Amino acid sequence: MNERTGCQAGDWVEVERVVLEPGERADGLPEDTARQPLKMWVKGFARAAARIGEKVEVETMTGRVVEGTLTDVLPGYTHTFGRPPKELVAIGRDLRARVAAYRAREGR
Question: Which residues contact 59 (CB under 8 A, 6 or more apart)?
């Protein structure tokens, strides 16, 4: 078995799990969202060998044990929050300058 077909115990993997079925989701969701199950993806160390698509337990970095369907072996981190809003880019630098100016004025 290789990383394209499955994992061995101890491999870093990703599993998918349904948290809520469509009928269990909260009222008030948009119709297209309410029709979909709420899923989560968890990365951790496989506790047994498994093939892609099979159930397997993983132990996360925090020691939590989660069972799910094996979706990836040696997964990377590919998420993004997109481009930062222009207004937020300089906030840290601006705030540090303001704190420094305040401290200078107050003699701290």
Answer: 44, 45, 47, 65
- Our CA dihedral for 7, 62, 55, 80, rounded to 10 degrees, sits at -80
Q: Which of 22, 2, 10 is nearest to 56 (CA)?
A: 10
* Residue pLDDT, tens place only, 65-101: 999 999 999 998 888 889 988 888 889 899 999 999 9
Percent of the chain at pLDDT exceeding 90: 80
- Residues with Cβ within 8 Å of residue 74, at least 6 apart in sequence: 3, 11, 12, 13
Report pLDDT digits (tens) over 7-16: 999 999 999 9
Report which of 54, 79, 72 is spatially closest to residue 13, judged by C-alpha positions. Answer: 72
> What is the three-class DSSP state of 61?
coil
For residue 47, give the DSSP letter.
Answer: S
Question: pTM of the entire structure?
Answer: 0.69
